[in-house]
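Marked as duplicate of an earlier ticket. Keeping the data here for the record.
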Amino acid sequence: MYKLDENVPIHKALHSELIRRIGQMKPGSRLPTEEKLVAEFGISRSTVNTVLSRLTEQGIIYRIRSKGTFVSERKITRRELTMLLPGPGVLSGNSNSSFFTREFLNGVLDEGLKRGFVVNTMMCTSDHRRESLIPEAFRSFATDANVIIPADWWHDVFPDIAACGCRVVCFNRQQISTEMKRQLSNWYLLTYDMESAVADAVARFAADGRRRILFLEETSSWSTGMMMNGYKKGLARAGLPFETALCPEIDYLKMLKELSSGNDSAACELYGELWRKLHFDAVIIPSYLYARPLLKVLKTEGVSVPDDVAAICTDDWIELEQSPSISHYARHPYEYGVEAVQGLDQTEFFGREKIMRLDFIAGESTHAPRNKNNAAVSKYPAFSKNRHECVFDLSL
């Protein structure tokens, strides 16, 4: 007997499981009978019938009397795609989140125009808070809809979107659990390779003769397991021992909240204490927000970066110019937007995962080229808010 997810209502769990299976079947394939589904899942026939009726209404399956239930043809609609946005002001702010979302959308707009898509956006909250997401609002996508999710920020409503059976490309930072991936098996996942970035950073430090490599273990971060795996793999590859002292645990969400509000006192105190205790010669920075406190503390201690202590950040692109002495593993979010549209624009859309390796950008070379007025010059097109329409605004 197959065990459905016990954390969601039974009809919803069955719907998601059948959607997952149907996505792996060819059009015209026959589904098991209601009797077989009842026996396999150990649920009532009325529940099975309700879910099959819902799938029929969505156009995912069709029924022929006395013959059975079959998988419908999956149509490819090129006319429109919708990218989710977290909240008002996200495209005009100066935060890292704003920069990432703006440039991601910029890539979607350019590639979408090139491939004949009309690009829409969906504003999902009024206050940019996960707690304000309304699950019911994400259950109305048509089965032939094209949806781009630019982050795992929408993690809590993934099952609601998946239940619609629409085509989805989702960018994520290796923060989707194995169980959740099973529910999203029909999605195209663009996965930011955090594990390899950390492993490569350790190997690069070791090749440069660094032996005491500090890594902050984020106890409340979804991606901490993958990053720790990368750290251990990098050490093993370099023949270095694993030292618990060099992996102090931090409360990531608490620290992130303080840093986001401009309060870096706790981070500075942490780095200062670690430096005086460990005298590390390299550090892996898990978030760009940790970069400035680190540089501030090391400058106070008379330590040179990158000569005395080398630093590599495995976060986003925005901090590259702001911390030129720190190297990075990163890719410009514009490229993720382009990849997302390419993922949707397939003759036959099917679920899979693409692991995206990051580019290494050495410290002083992270400055963008500058013109005669000393203004940064980017190879990526300028963003314009007038090139898309917000057709769904849940913030109202």
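See parent ticket for discussion. Residues 365-377 have pLDDT under 50 and may be disordered.
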